[in-house]
Amino acid sequence: MANPNSTKHLHLNAFLMEAGHHEAAWRLPESNAQADFDLAHWIKLAQLAESAKFDSLFLADGPALHGSGEFRPAGQLEPLTLLTALAAVTRHIGLIATVSTTYNSPYNLARRLASVDHVSGGRVGWNIVTSATTEEASNFGLDDRPLHAERYARADEFLEVVLKLWDSWDDEAIVADKARGRWADPDLIRPIHHRGKHFRVEGALNVKRSPQGYPLLVQAGSSEDGRQFAARFAEAIFTAHQTYESAVNFYSDIKSRVRSAGRNPDLVKILPGIVPIIGSTESEARKLAKELDDLRVPEYGLGALATILEVEPRELKLDEPLPKQVVERQHREGFVSRSQLVIEFATREKLTVRQVLSRLGGGRGHFVLTGTPEQVVATLEKWFHGGAADGFNVMGAALPSGLEAFIEHVLPVLRAKGLFREEYDGETLRDNYGLPRPGNQFHRASAQSA
Known about the structure:
The chain has 450 residues and is of the alpha/beta class. It has helices at 39-51, 79-87, 106-120, 134-138, 148-166, 224-233, 244-260, 282-294, 298-309, 324-327, 336-348, 353-361, 373-385, 401-416, 429-432, 441-449; strands spanning 11-16, 56-59, 94-100, 124-129, 174-177, 182-184, 194-195, 200-201, 216-219, 236-239, 269-278, 367-371, 391-394.
């Protein structure tokens, strides 16, 4: 169990992405251009993050090829499969996978996540997404993706079903009485008999309640629907902000919504993404950033931006601002919060499309922090103490070098200030995040009806 008397520190998640988050990282001379399919690469990153006592690592995912593959690595290993392999070579670090509610069934996914939580000894988290692209929809026999509101309505019911399934076994269900030949108490393994708009599931799950009760629930959408969903279910939130003020407003809004939903806002951890590019001097850091920026292929960035904004690439002119009709468009069905973020900083700073592409190249809209270790720490400390973050989603621009630099140069400064742990406090991912093991909802229902 986590130590309740441990000093409050910020939480750090290592967001891992093949050769790095910068779109051109794979082109660096030292990079592994096929890192996405190289298990040894992922093992090295996981063990590196664990050696530094990161709370968790995180894998993004989507059930479609990313672009054409011409300008950037476009494939990826299925994350729960990869996390199962990483669980065998790590002991403490949390393991968070992105899995969609749109193209999965609750029973199979509840079973897979609970299984990996058992295999890892209670270290799994689920980043819950609703799949925003038409490419994903077409891989599942659909002509178009479901509408944004419909995807979240399905996700709401999906979570209700999955939580019922994880609670369908009591912790004491297995009695293992060899003398009497009685393996389990059938009264403590209950079918859920779910009947809803989207799902009909009998249950019970065929996997016992996992070490954490259920995996840590993580969410990353910042749209209105996403915020409401997070207020009901999320225990950790990954988010993107370009300014301190934006991060403060988001933090305050989410904590208020969580409180209104009848939950304790202190038990919901908000972790903005940061892309640290670190040098011994500010000039050296900027040189590293320019080296990466010079390797970008504009055609790739243009296609990625067009996808976010839901326009054709030909509508975007490199040396002109974002078109008025794009900026003023009121409704989008895909990347709602990310498109809003891009439009806000592009218009606020009067950027051309070319300049927008440069800004997005490092981390797709996440905050790129270029400077010395002391400058990076000053920003993290301001956000942490200033009500903008409970921790950070650390996104190495190049991997493993970006993560190595953060560990070698930033963590010692954070530790000297008492802002980050020296050792793990417990055994599970929930211990890492200072979160309690959830009780069984059927026990609560029985107590309320008694």
